[in-house]
Amino acid sequence: MTPLRVIVVGAGISGLAFAYRIQNLAAKAGRTLDLTLLEASGHVGGVIRSARFDDCLLETGPDCWAGNKPAGMELCRELGLEPELIGTRAGVRRSFILHRGTLKRLPEGFFLISPMSVRALLATPLLSVAGKLRMGLELLVPRRTDDADESLAHFVRRRFGHEALARIAQPMVAGIYTADPEKLSLQATFPQFLQMERDHGSVIRALRRKAAQEARGAVSTGGEVSRAAGPRYGMFVTLKQGMSTLTNALAAVLPPNALRVNCPVASARREAGAWRVRLGDGDELACDLLCLALPAHASARLLAGFAPAAAGALGEFEYAGAAVVNFVFRREQIAHAMDGIGAVIPSVEKRRLVAFSFSSVKFEGRAPEGKVVLRAFMGGALQPEVAALAPAELQKVALEELRDLVGIRGEPEFALAGAHNRAMAQYHVGHLARVQAARRAVGALAGLSVIGNAFDGVGIPDCIRGANEAAQSAMQAAPAPVM
Ligand SMILES: Cc1cc2nc3c(=O)[nH]c(=O)nc-3n(C[C@H](O)[C@H](O)[C@H](O)COP(=O)(O)OP(=O)(O)OC[C@H]3O[C@@H](n4cnc5c(N)ncnc54)[C@H](O)[C@@H]3O)c2cc1C
Known about the structure:
FAD/NAD(P)-binding domain, Polyamine Oxidase, Chain A, domain 2, alpha+beta, binds flavin-adenine dinucleotide
């Protein structure tokens, strides 16, 4: 029986998860597989990269994922990584927000962008009296009747007022989507708020009802609403030895010699019933199934010469850069009590940080006693000039900002920056229509899958789910074996 030839391009979490899943599906179907995973860089994991300095664990990309989305947890279970999973440290699941130059506790009783009760609204120190009044008037704002997509900023201003957008909603979502809220599609990112408006005429009213139902045990949402306090830190998980544990485990179960690093792909075309992948060095490889697991702009580039319609549709997704700087300090160098996970910084504060974490407080095992790992998150759509800085400059800027925010004395023992150029897909207004158009154009090309963080969500579990579904569809459409 001829083996099914599969090439995956890009060894980030999307490509690795696809390669893993298609191996399993082929084995179940009794098909032999000739699998190749081509990665341009020398690193496996894409933006995921854990590093060590002495006994400290640093993450220069993502540091955790949402455990309430099943795909990430299921994959860890399948790979035998369940004992390695840890949640945020109990007892410190609170965070801060910068308000007029001072770090304030994120208010209790808020669900991301909305208060859940009038009491929570009155108690927040983040809004002026006029801002609170306007936010409370949300209960009276008539529901919108048309279905057109709108930006998060438009929705929040319309329902809660300008101050709520600038002081609460913008910083809350910036850390997730690195996005400009004026462009961020509500339908594609927070459809639950639209639904609440539609069903209850008010987000605050919907949240109050949900919380009351939860309290009565009438609905089971895992306490999502009643225990909410800003970002729901209790639901974030990571791996004891770092995020790279997951990507390394996926690489380890690839067939021998399947993974080829330092192997950029220059273009792809379909010819005589097979895909032909041209490598940077001019060599060509052929396969039956091709999976491009790249930022959409990179997939567009590979297809441009052969499939301009698909390339055009993929090129429609905008991307932003993001950067992470990790610092190692001695505990006594930091004045802040570090009695929380970290902070988000509203853009109206005019700082060059989007957020920062006390990483060694957030997760156990990140630093030995007496040491601290601090992590700054920078760039995003609102500060593209920051994301583009060279690593030394990133460290300098991050240190200047953190010095002021948490009171740092002296120099860090170690610093490590990770810059990710055009790595974060931007879910702009009209995103769902763009996804549909791209899927249609790619679907017209037999044997091709295109995955990555432009389609099903930017988070790691979203990328894994997208990879699982694509592998399933690819196997179903795979050419029958020739005996
Ligand atoms: C700084 C940062 C922090 C984040 N934090 C979180 C978080 O805490 N939690 C969370 O859930 N998500 C987070 N995300 C989002 C999430 O990490 C990403 O969406 C996800 O990891 C993307 O994975 P991917 O495999 O699709 O793409 P990538 O990781 O970008 O991988 C693509 C791979 O393709 C390779 N490649 C590119 N071009 C070619 C080519 N021509 N030929 C061959 N190979 C090529 C690249 O070298 C790369 O290895 C974060 C993202 C960033 C950038």
